Structure formats: structure tokens, C-alpha cells
Amino acid sequence: MRAFAYERPTELAAAIALLVAHGPDARLLAGGTDLIIRLRDGSVRPLVVVDVKRIAELDGEVRSAGGLLTIGARTTMTAIAADERIRRDFPALAEAAAVVGAVQIRNRATLAGNVCNASPAADTAPVLLVYGARVVVAGANGERRIPIDEFFVRSGVTTLARDELVSSIELPLPDGPRGAIHVRRTRRRGHDLASVTLACAVRPDGVTRLAYGSVGPRPVLAVDDSGLLADAAAPDGEKAELLARLLAGASPSPRSMRASPDYRRAMLQVLALRAVHAALERLAGEGVRP
Ligand SMILES: Cc1cc2nc3c(=O)[nH]c(=O)nc-3n(C[C@H](O)[C@H](O)[C@H](O)COP(=O)(O)OP(=O)(O)OC[C@H]3O[C@@H](n4cnc5c(N)ncnc54)[C@H](O)[C@@H]3O)c2cc1C
Q1: Does the beta carbon of 76 sit less than 6 angstroms from any atom of ligand 1?
Q2: 201 CA from centroid of ligand 1 (Å)
Q3: d(C-alpha 248, C-alpha 231), whole Å
Q4: CA 154 vs CA 89, 116, 254: distances in Å
Q5: Which of 11, 45, 50, 134 lies 20 to 30 Å from 286, alpha-carbon distance?
Q6: How far apart are CA 115 and CA 270, in angstroms?
Q7: CB neighbours of 285 closer than 8 A, spacing ≥ 6?
Q8: CA contacts within 13 A on the Cβ side of 166
Q9: CA distance 9 to 28
Q10: Ligand 1 nearest atom to the CA of residue 193, by list position
Q11: Which residue has its alpha carbon closest to ligand 1 atom 31?
């Protein structure tokens, strides 16, 4: 590991000044569950590591106001999986957070770090896509909001500028009932990165949002507004045909050690149909709220 300076600013402005001063030689550190591994294996070699955990303006809180649920940049997977508002209004996010790594990882891993790392296998990415999340970003030119679908570029690359950091993630609160679920396929049960990770949300007006990851360079969002997927009585054969079209954005790498492209494509199709059924069941049952 190459030696680096370690900075622990207590103010957002100081953190941004460090990013401006050091450009590509600076790296932000939150839980460190991705960054420390990359520092150790030498795949990133920053001169300065900027720890965000003491920045007063960034917190680990979950807030609900103005029609939005706001998740602070320091919020861990453990906190997300346990938060009552998230479990009620965004259950698929709680589910995704609950399967990230193991307890020790979840106690440190942040949601912001998961999206900024931009791994195609990030479990929270498909969920944030189906829930229409926005990434709140602070930088030298002030604050901006990036729709999550415009945030991911490819593995390890986002539309975040060099002088920017993520201050929170916003989710629009549901304006009616919705059935949603996160599912994934791993090589073995428990602690493993996903070969396929997928989220689905169905609304009673017939709109179904599906997002899938670990099957290409970035997670993909697909929307069915024909009402077919949301129709509990529609035949599975018709749904499978439509799903095949919606899942055409998958382009799994033949070089992955985790699973072959054919296996991933087949699992994606199977998981997507199962997820649609499960989301519909939730919509018909506990997904419906007063
Ligand atoms: C053993 C193990 C198992 C894992 N299993 C899973 C899994 O099952 N599913 C899964 O999705 N992930 C998994 N991960 C990956 C990892 O835990 C997550 O990606 C985690 O959420 C990253 O968050 P962090 O706070 O640790 O980020 P860090 O490692 O601190 O940072 C990750 C990246 O994001 C940047 N960053 C962090 N915070 C900010 C910010 N506020 N603004 C801008 N950039 C920022 C950093 O510079 C870095 O590039 C696993 C990791 C390990 C080590």
C-alpha cells in the first residue's frame, strides 16, 4: 500500500477544499469497506484520504419532510435495515441493505459509499432506481441533485465531479400503495456479492418499475406502463415475453469469475418473473397502506 496523508475535516467546506486542492489524488473515506480493500490491493493510490465521518453537515440520520425521505451520507446499512420508516415505505431498500456483506460490514458500510463505489453488483442500486432516488451532492459550486439513473456511468465511475461529495440521498415518499421487493442470486447462501441483483415495484395504476444489476457495467432501469406485468391475472408466458424485452439491457461480462453470461441472463429472467409475482402479492396484501 502506498503511503497517503489522512485528513479528517469537521466542516463540509474544508472537505471540499481538500478535494479541490488534490483533485484525482484525493479519495473520500466513509465506512471504508470498499476503499480499504482497494488501497490494500493498490487499485487506487491516492495521496490524500479524506475521512467524511466527522463532517458536521453530513450525518447518519434518516429524515422525513416535504414529501421526501432523506438518508444522510453517513447512514449505515444496519441503520437502514432497522429504520421503521424505511421498512414501511421503502421495504425493498431495507431488504437490500440487510443482505449487504455480513453484520460487521453492514455496521460500517454506508448507502452513500455503496452508490459512489458504483459497483455493478451494488445491492442498493436497483432499489434506488425503482424508488426514483436522487443523490444530493455538495461541491465547490454549491449543491445539486442528480437523479440516480443519471448518477451511474460504469463500474467505479459516476457523474460526480472531482470537487463533489454526496451529502445525502433522497427518496420521494409514496403517494399511494405500492408492492416492492429486492431479490438477488448469489453463488452461495449468505456472504457473497450478487451474480444478479434486482428490484421491482408495482403500483395499482399498472406501472411496474424493474431495475437490475450485476449483469452489465451499470445497473439498468426498465419501466412497464402497459399494465401487463401489474395484472395479476395475465398469463406468465406473456409476462415472460415482455420481461425478456425489458431485460434486454443486460450485458454480462464473459470475464467474470462469478457466473457465465448465459447463467446470469437466465437467472435474471427467472428472478424478474418471481419478483413481479412477489411485488403483486405485497401490493394485494401488506403492500396496501391506508
Ligand atoms: C466482505 C464484503 C462483502 C460485501 N458484500 C456486499 C454485498 O453483498 N452487496 C453490496 O452491495 N456491497 C457489498 N460490499 C461492498 C461494500 O460494503 C459497499 O459498497 C459499501 O456500502 C460501501 O460503503 P462504505 O461506507 O464502506 O464506502 P467506502 O469504502 O468508504 O467508500 C466507497 C467509495 O465511495 C466513495 N465515497 C464514500 N462516501 C462518499 C461520499 N459521501 N461522497 C462521495 N464519495 C464517497 C469513496 O471515495 C470510495 O470510492 C461488500 C464489501 C465487503 C468488504
Answers
A1: no
A2: 25
A3: 22
A4: 29, 11, 16
A5: 134
A6: 26
A7: none
A8: 32
A9: 11
A10: 8
A11: 113
Q: What is the DSSP letter of 174?
A: P
Cα–Cα distance for residue pair 252/266, rounded to 1 Å? 11
122 lines ligand 1 (CB under 6 A): yes
Amino acid at residue number 138: A
| Ligand 1 near 174 CB (within 6 A) | no
Task: Give 270 Cα–ligand 1 centroid separation in angstroms.
Answer: 28
**DSSP per position, 114-143:** HHHHT-TT-THHHHHHHTT-EEEEEETTEE
C-alpha 107/C-alpha 267 separation (Å) is: 30
* Ligand 1 pocket check for 31: Cβ under 6 Å: yes
Going from the C-alpha of 169 to that of each of 6, 42, 49, 72, 124, the distances in angstroms are 26, 29, 22, 7, 12
Whole-number Å distance between alpha carbons of 147 and 128:
10
Quickly state the pLDDT bin for 39 (edges 50, 70, 90).
very high
Regarding the beta carbon of 133 and ligand 1, being less than 6 Å apart is answered: no
DSSP bridge pairs for 166: 137
End-to-end CA distance of the chain: 55
Give yes or no for residue 108 having a pLDDT over 70.
yes
Residue 212 bridge partners (DSSP): 198, 220
Per-residue pLDDT tens over the stretch 153-196: 999 999 999 999 999 999 999 999 999 999 998 887 767 788 89
Question: Is residue 32 in contact with ligand 1, taking CB distance under 6 Å?
Answer: yes
pTM for this prediction: 0.96
Q: Give me the sheet containing 142-147, strands edge to edge.
A: 62-65, 68-72, 165-172, 134-139, 142-147
| pLDDT band, residue 255 (cuts 50/70/90) | confident
- How far does residue 286's CA lie from ligand 1's centre (Å)? 31
* Identity of the amino acid at 8: R
What would the grid cell of residue 229 be?
Answer: 406485468
